[in-house]
Amino acid sequence: MMDWFEIRQVNRDLWMIVEPGHVVSWLYLGSDSAALIDSGTGIAPIRPVVEKLTRLPIKLINTHYHFDHVGGNAEFAVRLAGAQAEAPLRRHAPRDLLKRYIDGLLPLIADAEAQRAADADVMALTPELALRPFPAGFDAESWRPGGVAATGLLREGDEIDLGDRRLQVIETPGHSPDGISLFDPAHGVLFVGDTLTEGALYAHYDESSLDDLAVSVGKLTRLPAPVHAICAGHVARAIAEVSLIAETEAALKQVASGAPYRQGQDIFGYGLRETRHGRVWVYHSDGRASSFPLHD
């Protein structure tokens, strides 16, 4: 199960825990406790990974309720999330959604295995991008992430005390209604979940709001201290340049102005519109209910 994760130490107090090709969780160490930012897919347990990295008490913080960020929630006693996540966190991801996810990944995993067999170094520079076979013992039929309530709810301006580090809560809806980001102004570290990402920025769900997302990204341009590192919930690049904030803001303005787009589809096979601007590809809807529920 441990082979499912790619683990990187960014600096003394920050670890990147990647499920390659899926999602990134972050472990941020303070003097008194540690914050685990999101708990992954639940395809393999994440707590044993965390316990190998620190003996500090863990405060799990969900940036939003989507299944690939809450799969390990039940492994932790302290579970914090944005106030709007309370009801969705109590529900499971729909069976059809998870089946679409697995079915979409299986041929991609097979392709990655074939490439590795042909050239073992083909992805040596980016192991966090190289899809891996599902762990032995993983049962896709019984996999149902979600359904675990938060033990505490967070609102704009709240602070999470880790001892010598503090994380400020910023409400950043748009990708989902409950989205939050976390900022350590003393050290310039910003955790953004799925509010920012290099590559595909999903804003096409029925619950998504491009207007809310634009407001949220605007907040990130006006933080009270300089940002030195952006820690995102997905790769292409999990630690992104600070310029990604401005580039995302510009990309959303392009969509709002009616910029050209092309038709595409997401990992679940649902259709969308894709507008590319630099490193950001905004996935947005044509206004019809063409996506799917993200919880039962």
UniProtKB/TrEMBL annotation:
Metallo-beta-lactamase domain residues: 22-234
Domain of life of the native organism: Bacteria
Database matches in SUPFAM superfamilies: Metallo-hydrolase/oxidoreductase
Gene Ontology biological-process annotations: antibiotic catabolic process
PANTHER family to which the protein is assigned, alphabetical: ACYL-COENZYME A THIOESTERASE MBLAC2, METALLO-BETA-LACTAMASE DOMAIN-CONTAINING
Similarity comment: family membership: Belongs to the metallo-beta-lactamase superfamily. Class-B beta-lactamase family.
Annotated protein name in UniProt: MBL fold metallo-hydrolase
Lineage, top ranks: Bacteria, Pseudomonadati, Pseudomonadota, Alphaproteobacteria, Acetobacterales
